[in-house]
Design a protein that fits this description.
The complex is a heterotrimer of chains A (253), B (291) and C (310). Chain A has 253 residues and is α/β, with parallel strands linked by helices. Chain A is 38% helix and 23% strand. Chain A is built from ten helices and ten strands. In chain A, a hairpin with a 2-residue loop joins strand 9 and strand 10. Chain B has one domain: ABC transporter involved in vitamin B12 uptake, BtuC (Orthogonal Bundle), CATH 1.10.3470. Chain B contains eleven helices and two strands. Chain B has a two-stranded antiparallel sheet with strand order 1-2. In chain B, helix 2 packs antiparallel against helix 3, helix 5 runs antiparallel to helix 8 and helix 6 packs across helix 8. Chain B starts with a helix and ends in a 14-residue tail after the last helix. Chain C is globular. Chain C is built from 14 helices and four strands. Chain C has a domain of 204 residues. A two-stranded antiparallel sheet of chain C has the order 1-4. A two-stranded antiparallel sheet of chain C has the order 2-3. Classes of the chains: A alpha/beta (253), B mainly alpha (291), C mainly alpha (310). At the B-C interface, helix 4, helix 9 and helix 11 of B face helix 4, helix 5, helix 11 and helix 13 of C.
C-alpha cells in the first residue's frame, strides 16, 4: 500500500484553478519529484498536502487515513515535514534553536515544568541541543552551530530548513526547491544531502527546477502543467513522454 | 417613540460624521504607509481648540477656521517627516508607540499653551433648533453632515478622477510598483499625512459647537475613529465613512436605550463583536497568505 | 547554551539585597518597590509582545480586575485578601481565555484594536459601577494579611516584592529557553514554520495571553494592597500604553530589558516632575526619540554594541 495517496485533488482561488484533479500515489522509501514550468502548481500542491491550504475538492490519504483539510500542526504529529521555497527561518532565534524547534513534538512542552526548570525537562532539552548540533553537521552546517540565524548566508539557511525538518524525525519530507538560488557546487552538495536523507529511510517528495538533480535522485516523477497532471512515471518514462517533451522539455530541446 | 428614536438618530449621525472623518484619516495614512496613526484623535482636538482660540483672538471666522485646518495639517506633515519616515519598515509596535508619543506631545503642548479648561465655539448659524417629527435637529448638525458629505464627494473625485489621487491609490496597492512607474511615493506619504490631519481637524471644528472641547478630548474621538475604520474594514474609504456613521448611531442608540453611562463603551463592544464574528470588518476583503 | 544568562539575575539579586541598606529614605524604598512590581508585570507582558510577537493594548484592564477584586471583595463581602486575589486572577484568566480564541485569529492592527477595546470596556465599567468601586474617585484597599502576619511596613513589602521579582526573572529565563518558550519565539519568527513543525499556534498564543493576563491581575492585586488605595486610572488606556512602552524601551524579547524598562519608566514621572506642566510633552518626546533612534530597545541595543547577545 502506498504511503501517500492523492486523488482528484483540486483547489480554486476565485476563478483561478491552481490545481485540478491531480491524482498520484507515493510508496514509502522512495524519492518522488514534482516538476513543471513556473506557475504549474507545484508549490500549491505542496501547500495542499501539508495543510497550509484546504483543498476545494479531492482526497489526500496518508497511511490510508484521510488528511485533507487537516492543519499543518496536526500533520506534523503524523510525521509530515517540509521546507519552503521562500525561506521560513525564525530570524529571532539562533541557528541551533531553529533546529531544536523542529523537535517540538518530541519534547516536554509543559509550561510550568519549564518555568520551574524541572531536571527531567532540562536534561532532555540539553540532549536535544546536542542532537541539533549533530543534525547541523549532518546537513553540512558545522560552521554555523553557534551562529545566529540572521547572520547566515542564503545557501546555509536552505540547509538549516532541512535540518529543522529532520529534527522532527519525519516519515515523509517535502522539499520545495532546495537548490533554488544555490551555486553549482552548493547544488551538488544538496543533491548528496537529499540522497543521504533518502538512504536514512525517509520518503522524500521534491520540487526542483534543476533537471540534473531531479533525474539523478528521483525514483518517480510527476509532471504538472497549468495545474493539471501531464505525466507520471520513472525518469526514463517521463523523459520519453511526448506530452512532456512538447510542453516542457520541448522548450529546451 | 418615533420622536425619541429620531432624536437619537440625529445625534448619532452627527457625531458619526466626525468619526467618519477621523476614520478616513486613519484609512488614508494606513493605505499610504501601513501605519495606524494613534495621534489622529489629537488632530481632531487640535482643530477644535485652534478654531476656538483663533476666533477669540479676533480673526474673522472663515480665516480662523482655515488656519485651524492648516496648522494641524502642518503638524501632520512634521510628524511624517520627523518621526515616521526615519523608521521605515519598523515593527508595528514601534510605529504604534511613535504615534502615541506624538499624541502625548501634541496634547501636552496644547495643555501648556491653551490651558486645561473646556472651551466652546459658537455655532456657525445660530442655535435655534429645527423641529422634525417631534425631534429637534441643531443647525450645526446640518453643517457637520453637509460638510462631511461634500468632503466625501471631493475625496471620491480626487481618488478616482485626478492623477494625484490615482497615484496615491496605486501606492497603497503596491508601493514598489508605484515607484517603478514613476510615482513619487514620498510625496504620497506627505500628502496622506497632511490630508488626514486636515480631515481630523475639520471634524473637530465642526463638532466643537455641539460637544465642546478640551486638550484631552482627542483620545476618545481618535480611538472611536479607529473603531470606525476597522468596522469598515481597515483601508476601505467608503467602509470608513459607513463605519463612522454606524459607530455614531450605535453609540447614540446605546446611550439612549441601554445606558448613558456606558455610551463610550458601545463602540468597543461593537468592534469586539465584529472582530470575533467577521474578522475582516464589515466591508473588508479576504486575503490568503502566500508561502 | 550560554553560561552567563543568569549573570544578570545574580546582579539583580545582589542589588536587591544591598539597596535597602543604602537607600537614604523611605521615598526611595517606595520607588524601588513600585519599580519591582512594574518589572514583574512587564516580564509577563514581554513574553506576549516581545517573545510571542502579539501586541496587547489593554493589559491595564487586567491589572484593574485584579486590583479591584482585592479592593471590592474584602471590603464589601469580607473575603480574605488572598482569596480575593485568587478570584481576581481566576476571573481574569477566564475572561482572557474566553476572548483569546477569536482575538488570536486576528493579526497586527486588528489584534491591537481588539485588546484596546477590551481594556477600555473594563476601565469604563470600573468607573461606572460606583456603588462597588467608588467610581472615578477610587476606593481604599484593606491590608494584606499572610498567615496572621500583616504586610504593613515598607520593609516587609520590599522583601516580599524583591523575592517575587527574583523568582519571576528566574522563571522567565527558564521559560524562554525551553520547548514551550522556543515554540513561542518560533511563531513570532515564522508562524507557518512553527505550524509545520507541530506547534499549535493558536493554542500557544492563547496560553501566553492568558498567562500574562493572570500575571497582570495578580500584580494588580499586589499594587492595590501596597498602595492601600485604587483608582480606575490604574486600568486606563494610558497605563496600558505605559506598560507596552516599558517593554519596548527596555527591549522586546529581552528579560533583562523588561526590568530595565520598568525601572526607567517608573522613575520617569519623578524625574520629569521638575518640568512642571511639561511632563506629558517630555514623556511623549522620550517615547518618540527612543523608538526612532533605538527601535530594538535599550538592552538589546547595548548588548549588540558590546558584542554579546543576551
Amino acid at each position: 500500500m502506498a504511503l501517500l495517496d492523492v486523488s482528484q485533488l483540486s483547489i480554486h482561488f476565485g476563478g483561478v484553478k491552481a490545481v485540478q484533479n491531480v491524482s498520484f500515489s507515493i510508496d514509502a522509501g522512495i524519492v518522488y519529484s514534482v516538476i513543471g514550468p513556473n506557475g504549474a502548481g507545484k508549490t500549491t500542491l505542496f501547500n495542499l498536502i501539508t495543510g497550509v491550504y484546504t483543498p476545494t475538492s479531492g482526497e489526500i490519504r496518508l497511511d490510508d487515513e484521510s488528511i485533507g483539510g487537516k492543519s499543518p500542526n496536526q500533520l506534523a504529529t503524523r510525521g509530515v515535514a517540509r521546507t519552503f521555497q521562500n525561506l521560513q527561518i525564525c530570524m529571532n532565534m539562533s541557528a541551533r534553536e531553529n533546529v531544536m524547534v523542529g523537535a517540538h513534538l518530541r519534547l516536554d512542552r509543559n509550561l510550568i515544568k519549564a518555568a520551574l526548570r524541572f531536571p527531567g525537562l532540562k536534561r532532555r532539552d540539553a540532549e536535544m541541543c546536542e542532537e541539533a548540533a549533530e543534525l547541523m553537521r549532518f546537513v553540512g552546517l558545522e560552521k554555523y552551530i553557534e551562529a545566529r540565524a540572521d547572520s547566515m548566508p542564503y545557501g546555509a539557511l536552505k540547509r538549516l530548513e532541512i535540518a529543522r525538518a529532520l529534527a522532527m524525525k519525519p516519515r515523509l519530507l517535502f522539499l520545495d526547491e532546495p537548490a533554488a538560488g544555490l551555486n553549482p557546487r552548493e547544488t551538488i552538495e544538496v543533491d548528496h544531502l537529499v540522497r543521504k536523507v533518502a538512504d536514512a529511510g525517509i520518503t522524500v517528495v521534491l520540487v526542483e527546477h534543476d533537471m540534473k538533480m531531479v533525474m539523478n535522485l528521483s525514483d518517480r516523477i510527476l509532471v504538472l502543467d497549468y495545474g493539471k497532471k501531464l505525466a507520471e512515471g520513472t525518469g526514463e518514462e517521463v523523459r520519453k513522454n511526448p506530452d512532456v517533451i512538447a510542453a516542457y522539455l520541448g522548450a529546451h530541446a | 417613540m418615533l420622536a425619541q428614536f429620531l432624536q437619537f438618530l440625529f445625534s448619532g449621525i452627527t457625531v458619526g460624521a466626525t468619526y467618519a472623518l477621523a476614520a478616513l484619516g486613519f484609512t488614508l495614512i494606513y493605505n499610504a504607509s501601513n501605519v495606524i496613526n494613534f495621534a489622529q484623535g489629537e488632530f481632531i482636538m487640535l482643530g477644535g481648540m485652534l478654531a476656538v482660540f483663533f476666533t477669540q483672538a479676533g480673526l474673522p471666522l472663515p480665516l480662523a477656521l482655515l488656519l485651524a485646518i492648516l496648522v494641524p495639517a502642518v503638524v501632520g506633515v512634521l510628524l511624517e517627516k520627523l518621526a515616521i519616515e526615519p523608521v521605515k519598515g519598523a515593527e508595528t509596535v514601534t510605529l504604534i508607540i511613535i504615534t502615541i508619543g506624538a499624541s502625548l506631545v501634541i496634547r501636552g503642548l496644547t495643555a501648556v499653551i491653551f490651558g486645561k479648561g473646556t472651551h466652546s465655539l459658537p455655532a456657525f448659524s445660530g442655535d435655534a433648533p429645527i423641529e422634525i417629527l417631534g425631534a429637534t435637529l441643531l443647525p450645526q448638525s446640518l453643517w457637520v453632515l453637509g460638510v462631511t458629505a461634500v468632503v466625501v464627494v471631493a475625496l471620491w473625485y480626487f481618488f478616482n478622477r485626478t492623477l494625484q489621487g490615482k497615484a496615491m491609490l496605486a501606492t497603497s496597492y503596491n508601493r514598489l510598483a508605484a515607484e517603478l512607474v514613476g510615482i513619487n511615493t514620498g510625496w504620497v506619504l506627505f500628502m496622506s499625512f497632511a490630508m488626514s490631519a486636515a480631515l481630523g481637524a475639520l471634524g473637530g471644528i465642526l463638532i466643537t459647537p455641539i460637544t465642546l472641547t478640551s486638550y484631552d478630548a482627542g483620545i476618545m474621538l481618535g480611538l472611536k475613529g479607529f473603531v470606525a475604520a476597522v468596522v469598515g474594514g481597515l483601508g476601505n474609504g467608503l467602509g470608513a465613512v459607513l463605519g463612522g456613521l454606524l459607530v455614531g448611531i450605535l453609540e447614540a442608540m446605546g446611550a439612549g436605550y441601554i445606558s448613558s453611562a456606558y455610551k463610550d463603551a458601545m463602540p468597543f463592544v461593537l468592534i469586539l463583536l465584529i472582530l470575533f464574528f467577521m474578522p475582516r470588518g464589515l466591508f473588508g476583503g479576504k486575503s490568503t497568505d502566500r508561502v | 547554551m550560554k553560561k552567563n544568562v543568569f549573570f544578570g539575575l545574580y546582579l539583580i539579586i545582589g542589588l536587591l539585597l544591598v539597596l535597602p541598606f543604602v537607600l537614604p529614605n523611605s521615598f526611595y524604598l517606595d520607588l524601588v518597590i513600585r519599580m519591582a512590581i512594574n518589572a514583574v508585570i512587564v516580564l509577563g507582558l514581554n513574553l506576549l509582545i516581545g517573545f510571542a510577537g502579539q501586541i496587547s493594548l489593554g493589559h491595564a484592564g487586567f491589572l484593574g480586575i485584579g486590583a479591584y477584586a482585592s479592593a471590592v471583595l474584602p471590603t464589601h463581602f469580607g473575603w480574605h485578601p488572598l482569596l480575593a486575589m485568587g478570584a481576581g486572577a481566576a476571573v481574569t484568566g477566564l475572561l482572557a481565555a474566553l476572548v483569546a480564541r477569536p482575538i488570536f485569529k486576528l493579526k497586527g492592527h486588528y489584534l491591537a484594536m481588539a485588546t484596546l477595546g477590551l481594556g477600555i470596556i473594563i476601565n469604563i465599567a470600573l468607573r461606572n459601577e460606583a456603588q462597588w468601586t467608588g467610581g472615578p474617585d477610587g476606593m481604599p484597599v484593606p491590608a494584606m494579611g499572610l498567615f496572621g502576619f500583616e504586610l504593613s511596613s515598607d520593609k516587609h513589602w520590599y522583601w516580599a516584592v524583591a523575592l517575587l521579582l527574583s523568582v519571576s526573572v528566574w522563571a522567565s529565563l527558564n521559560l524562554i529557553d525551553s520547548p514551550f518558550g522556543r515554540a513561542l519565539r518560533a511563531l513570532h519568527g515564522s508562524e507557518v514554520a512553527a505550524q509545520v513543525v507541530g506547534v499549535d499556534v493558536v493554542r500557544y498564543k492563547v496560553a501566553i495571553f492568558v498567562l500574562s493576563a493572570v500575571f497582570a491581575s495578580l500584580m494588580g492585586s499586589v499594587t492595590a494592597h501596597y498602595g492601600g488605595f485604587v483608582t480606575p486610572n490604574l486600568a486606563d488606556f494610558f497605563h496600558s500604553i505605559e506598560l507596552v512602552t516599558m517593554v519596548v524601551i527596555g527591549g522586546m524579547a529581552s528579560v533583562y530589558g523588561s526590568v530595565i524598562g520598568a525601572v526607567l519608566l517608573t522613575a520617569m514621572p519623578q524625574a520629569l516632575a521638575t518640568f512642571e506642566g511639561w511632563e506629558t510633552v517630555a514623556f511623549g518626546s522620550i517615547l518618540m526619540l527612543s523608538m526612532i533612534f533605538m527601535p530594538k530597545g535599550l538592552v538589546p541595543t547595548l548588548a549588540a554594541k558590546f558584542g554579546k547577545g543576551e
